[in-house]
């Protein structure tokens, strides 16, 4: 069965989409046609959306599902009146939280994604740092980094560094394990010096081969034998360094990043 799903908000819709995806992930035997509907912030737009809901019902033979973060009661009532299964994601939390805090909610849209100037500046600086210290360009800057990632080529270091910078404001650098490192069985002293904030990324050889094949098709670099050997030697170096090793094969960047954040906090508590 296929169901149409709308992610609806009077603002960006990021919260509705994120929470909705999390809920839908528990029903992986079903197919969902997902429709992103931000800025439904007028009666006219809400009524137009209810018409789309009816069209989806006629097409699918079953009413669509609506995940919404709608603080405007009038627009919410219009959407609820449509032929849909409506889930207001704020409804069950705002009033109980207000009662506990003793403060009424502002009822302003877009508040969850507003950025304080100081934090915005921190994130921009972190992104610039990650880009300037990518791929081991400046190991002499590792002492300025909040976190340093290492691993073989194409194991996910760069996207993880950028994610940590954009979402957590962390100054992230990375060091790729190279042929020279394999030959001497060790990494430079500058990498050793940052072991307290060093994390290794590994990946299954078969997955690594697919990724490398896209970059350099039919080359020794992308052969399965080379991938297997690179990972084997890198694991020996990681063991010598005695650092946490995270496998990126089947984990998302978000999951890997959460493990890194947890590891950094544990290091600070020691």
TrEMBL record:
* Catalysis performed (reactions): [pyruvate, water dikinase] + ADP = [pyruvate, water dikinase]-phosphate + AMP + H(+); [pyruvate, water dikinase]-phosphate + phosphate + H(+) = [pyruvate, water dikinase] + diphosphate
- InterPro entries (alphabetical): Kinase-pyrophosphorylase, PSRP
Q: Where are the transmembrane segments?
A: none
Q: Does the keyword Nucleotide-binding apply?
A: yes
Q: Does the keyword Phosphoprotein apply?
A: no
- One Pfam family this sequence matches: Kinase-PPPase
The residues listed in the UniProt record as binding ADP, with positions renumbered to this chain, are: 151-158
Keywords from the named record: Kinase, Nucleotide-binding, Serine/threonine-protein kinase, Transferase
Give the molecular function GO annotations: ADP binding; ATP binding; phosphotransferase activity, phosphate group as acceptor; protein serine/threonine kinase activity
What EC class is this? transferase
Concerning PANTHER family, the annotation shows: PYRUVATE, PHOSPHATE DIKINASE REGULATORY PROTEIN 1, CHLOROPLASTIC (PTHR31756)
Q: Which HAMAP family match?
A: PSRP
Family affiliation: Belongs to the pyruvate, phosphate/water dikinase regulatory protein family. PSRP subfamily.
Protein name, entry field: Putative phosphoenolpyruvate synthase regulatory protein
Query: What species was this sequence derived from?
Result: Thiobaca trueperi
């Amino acid at each position: 069965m296929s169901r149409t799903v709308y992610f609806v908000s009077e603002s960006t819709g990021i919260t509705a989409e994120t929470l909705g995806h999390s809920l839908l992930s528990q029903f992986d035997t079903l197919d969902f046609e997902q429709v992103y509907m931000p800025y439904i912030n007028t009666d006219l737009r809400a009524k137009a959306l209810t018409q789309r809901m009816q069209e989806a019902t006629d097409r699918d033979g079953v009413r669509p599902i609506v995940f919404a973060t709608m603080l405007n009661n009038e627009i919410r009532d219009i959407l609820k009146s449509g032929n849909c299964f409506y889930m207001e994601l704020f409804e069950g939390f705002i009033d109980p939280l207000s009662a506990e805090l003793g403060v009424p909610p502002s009822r302003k849209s877009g508040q969850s994604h507003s950025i304080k100037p100081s934090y915005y500046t921190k994130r921009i600086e972190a992104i610039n740092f990650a880009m300037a210290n990518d791929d081991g360009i400046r190991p002499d800057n590792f002492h300025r980094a909040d976190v340093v990632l290492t691993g073989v080529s194409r194991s996910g270091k760069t996207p993880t560094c950028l994610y940590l910078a954009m979402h957590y404001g962390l100054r992230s650098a990375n060091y790729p394990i190279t042929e020279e490192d394999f030959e001497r069985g060790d990494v430079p002293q500058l990498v050793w010096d940052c072991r307290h904030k060093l994390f290794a990324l590994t990946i299954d050889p078969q997955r690594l081969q697919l990724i490398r094949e896209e970059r350099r098709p039919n080359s020794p670099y992308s052969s399965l034998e080379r991938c297997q050997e690179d990972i084997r030697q890198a694991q020996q170096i990681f063991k010598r360094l005695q650092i946490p090793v995270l496998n990126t094969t089947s984990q998302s960047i978000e999951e890997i990043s959460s493990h890194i954040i947890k590891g950094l906090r544990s290091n600070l508590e020691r």
